[in-house]
Amino acid sequence: MIPADPQADKPVGVTGKVNLSDILMLLASAQGLFLGVLILHKYRGLLANRFLTALLFLQSGLLLEMSLQNVTALGDRPRLVMFIIGVAFLAGPLHYLYAKYLTRPGEKPVRLDILHFVPFLIYEALVLFLYHPTADMTRIGADPMVQAAWTKSFGYFHLVVVIQYGSYLVWTQLILQEYGRRVRTVFSTLEKVKLTWLRNITWLAMCIVVVYALEYALLLMGIGTGNYFAFSSVLLALNVYAMGYLGLLKSEVLDSDTLRDTLRGVGGTLAAASDPSPVAKYDKSGLGQDDLALYQSKLLTVMTEQSPQTESGLTLDQLAAMVGLSAHNLSEVINRGLDQNFFDFVNGYRVQKVQEDLVDPKKAHLTVLALALDAGFASKSTFNAIFKKHTGLTPTAWRKQHSDS
Fold first, then answer.
1. Mean pLDDT value of segment 103-117
2. Could you confirm whether domain 290-404 is CATH 2.60.40.10?
3. Is residue 308 classed as helix, strand or coil in its secondary structure?
4. In 3-state terms, what secondary structure has residue 284?
5. For residue 271, is pLDDT > 60?
6. Helical residues (DSSP H) of 184-256, grouped into ranges
7. Between the CA of residue 86 and those of 166, 214, 384, what are the distances in Å?
């Protein structure tokens, strides 16, 4: 008696084999769902986190679908697969909206935001009414020629996804760069508010788009790896881990009421302080040249006599209260009168204090880091970068040079 073939009753395209990439995608999918629920439960007060949760759920669903295609009959239902993969049109808009409302916590969602999801709705409508899979197409994977025909017929989808997702990622990088300029107008220390981690995740997403496009190009040329989009899928799994964990950790920092209130100021009228035209942006401020000189003198007196810069968390609002000005007018005094932004102005004083302490014999026993923290810097890396920017030397080299002179 001939043993029955265990593969005989399996649909075409179902291998029943689970490889390492499938396991990684399954784990990332589970982690993404878990982290999304946790973020939404703990930090739903941040509007941006609702978009982050939706993005994590979406990407986790895509990873689950891709990891199960080899071991289930899902690939034998092309219309269902087409519906599922259409959510790729949501990834770019959700990534962008997360960054938008994370950098502008005071803003409420607007109705025009719904326009970002129109491509997804159009795609799903096309699949519902115009996509009619043939019997041959349901057997993709059984015949290289059938696979090639399906791949080419599906080419427009891949092209549009690459263009749409890539455009949103570029857009996201632009608003993150603009945010980086704006926070320097109200914060003297950026450790808690800089979004370098989100910028890096956005770069990773850009890499995924590029790899995805390259893998599809290889398929068109018949140089497939035998596992559709294996490399971009693994990168997507890493992206889910990174965005989920960092989104959770950074939400804990950004959920501070004081920090959120200050960030709202960044998104409001103070956004003008990043305008490259220092004259035009203050046309309606009400400060004449005499007022500007008066408040500039008062500001410098406060900095010299009260040394507010030694407080690492000093913000524009706090310094404005000490000077007796509105935050907007103080920004004008610094930007227009001193030709600096708030960040550089305050840290210039901190560098000056460290320079004085470095050559003070009474403080020779203290480390450079101790002097930096005492001057108001919050971290060694930030201090080193700012000190070198102002002096052209590292703190150690500056101390040695001026101790020898």
1. 88
2. no
3. helix
4. coil
5. no
6. 196-220, 230-254
7. 16, 20, 47
- Quick one: tokens of 343? 């960040």
Closest CA to 189 of 39, 376, 30: 376
CA–CA dist 303, 346 (Å, integer)? 9
Return the amino acid letter for 261. D
Q: Are the CB atoms for 250 and 270 separated by under 8 Å?
A: no
**Residue 357, Cβ neighbours under 10 Å: how many?**
19
For residues 55 and 112, give the distance between their C-alpha atoms in angstroms, rounded to a whole number.
19
Phi then psi for residue 349, to 5 deg, are -65, -35
Long-range CB pairs of 74-83, under 8 A, 24+ apart, other chains included: 75/11, 75/13, 75/14, 75/140, 75/141, 76/11, 76/12, 76/13, 76/14, 76/138, 77/138, 78/133, 78/137, 78/138, 78/140, 79/127, 79/131, 79/133, 82/127, 82/131, 83/124, 83/127, 83/128
Q: Give first-to-last CA distance, the chain, whole Å.
A: 98
Class (C level, CATH) for 20-266:
mainly alpha
pLDDT, tens digit, for every residue of 149-201?
566 656 677 788 899 999 999 999 999 999 998 889 899 998 888 899 999 99
Please, where in the chain does CATH 1.10.10.60 lie? 290-404
pLDDT at 267: 52
Q: What angle do CA 351, 353, 358 make, to 5 degrees?
A: 95
Residues 383, 384, 390: CA angle, nearest 5 degrees:
85
Kindly report, residue by residue over 252-270, the tens digit of the pLDDT: 777 766 677 777 666 544 4
Q: Where in the chain is the domain with CATH 1.20.1070?
A: 20-266
Environment class of residue 125 by beta-carbon count within 10 Å: exposed (0-12), middle (13-18) or buried (19+)? exposed
- Mean pLDDT to the nearest integer, 334-345: 90
249: left (phi over 0), alpha (psi -120 to 50) or beta: alpha
How many angstroms separate the Cα of 131 from the Cα of each of 82, 152, 336? Answer: 9, 15, 61
Both tokens of residue 107? 């803003």
46, 251 Cβ separation under 8 angstroms: yes
Instruction: Write the pLDDT tens digit of every residue in 9-51.
Output: 444 444 456 677 778 888 889 999 999 999 988 888 888 999 9
Q: Give the separation between CA 405 and CA 403, rounded to whole angstroms.
A: 6
- Rg of the chain (C-alpha set): 28
Cα separation, 208 vs 240, in Å, equals 12
